[in-house]
Specification:
heterodimer, A: 119 residues, alpha+beta, Alpha-Beta Plaits, five-stranded antiparallel beta sheet, 4 helices, B: 212 residues, mainly beta, Porin, twelve-stranded antiparallel β-barrel, 2 helices, 12 strands, 7% helix, globular
Chain lengths: 119, 212
């Protein structure tokens, strides 16, 4: 019983003293960016290097979350490279903030973003 | 009656493992778990990746009582690294414990459990721990723990068949075998996760998870 309570308290302390998950993700991503990322709009193909991708359930989460976006034509997840490749529909764009938020909402973090077309 | 319904569910829906008790936003997960101590089903819905809520049913064979209730799983913390992930979850359930009629006379008790679970994995190694405190009135009360260590003999990409070799240790002071060791094999492909094993006393383990 004591062991259980101790573990419970330790976990609670970690939860309440740590930064929020979303904030951690955003800070990490910003640290990797060379541009004023919040203002960037992506089109065409976007490659996102994601942290925490370790299994098929992770990949499915990203597919489901991105698949619900009207702007997304297709998504491919490469576990070996921890790489998520998103193709946006012609004439559609996605903001940098939206892209990051979708990754975070799926439960993962962004390491860096590479895009052929952005403005 | 409840036990019959549970048995039907278990037959229709093979056992599941409780790895990843929270899914992606709007995701459903069905789990069935069968081991030396119990048969269990858990069906949950995740509004966000932080928590899930759903039905939990269990039948504890040795003490012959069943549990039916609502379980809430909460992802308290996740650490995402370039090649690994670690999680801490809280799991809480509340519902009714129903004694086996032939043993205790059919009676119901307010019951519930509270658990903390943690895991760390990369694509080669897996380790996890769970401690659970269960209270079922005068039917049963216990604290049990389990831990796992696993290794993937090969690393596949998304969509491949993933295989894990694992060793699970369970500690349940109330069980006839308080400490059991269970070697098992996990197969993981697409939305399905299947675990097959047997403890050193010969009791089978069969877990199945499907996510949709």
């Amino acid at each position: 019983m004591k062991l259980f309570l101790n573990l419970w308290m330790a976990a609670s302390l970690m939860l309440f003293t740590g930064n929020s998950y979303a904030n951690d993700a955003h800070k990490h991503e910003k640290g990797q960016s060379n541009v004023a990322a919040e203002n960037v709009m992506y089109s065409g193909d976007v490659k996102v290097h994601v942290t925490g991708l370790v299994c098929d359930f992770c990949a499915q989460a990203l597919e489901k979350v991105f698949g619900k976006q009207e702007a997304v034509q297709s998504i491919n997840v490469d576990l070996n490279e921890s790489l998520v490749s998103v193709t946006l529909k012609e004439g559609h764009t996605m903001s940098h903030q939206k892209l990051i938020q979708l990754i975070v909402d799926s439960g993962y973090n962004v390491d860096k973003v590479e895009a052929s077309d952005h403005e | 009656m409840f036990q019959k319904i549970l048995i039907v569910l278990l037959c229709a829906m093979p056992a599941l493992a409780e790895s990843r008790p929270v899914s992606y936003p709007t995701g459903w997960t069905t789990m069935a778990m069968n081991d030396a101590d119990k048969n269990a089903v858990h069906v949950h819905y995740s509004p966000t990746f932080k928590y899930s809520v759903g039905y939990k049913g269990e039948y504890w064979r040795e003490d012959e009582w069943s549990f039916h209730g609502i379980q809430v799983n909460y992802l308290a913390k996740r650490w995402n690294k370039k090649a690994s992930q670690a999680n801490v979850y809280f799991k809480n359930a509340i519902g009714l414990a129903i004694g086996d009629e032939s043993q205790t006379g059919s009676h119901q008790q307010l019951a519930g459990f509270s658990a903390i679970a943690a895991d760390w994995e990369d694509r080669r190694l897996f380790t996890s721990y769970e401690g659970r405190l269960t209270h079922a009135g005068d039917l049963d009360q216990f604290f049990m723990q389990k831990a796992r260590l696993g290794v993937a003999p090969y690393i596949g990409n998304y969509g491949d068949l993933h295989t894990w070799l694992m060793l699970q240790v369970d500690h349940n002071p109330k069980s006839s075998n308080p400490v059991t060791w269970t070697p098992l094999v996990r197969f993981f492909k697409g939305v399905h996760l299947l675990e097959l094993g047997s403890n050193l006393q010969g009791d089978a383990l069969l877990n199945w998870v499907i996510r949709f």
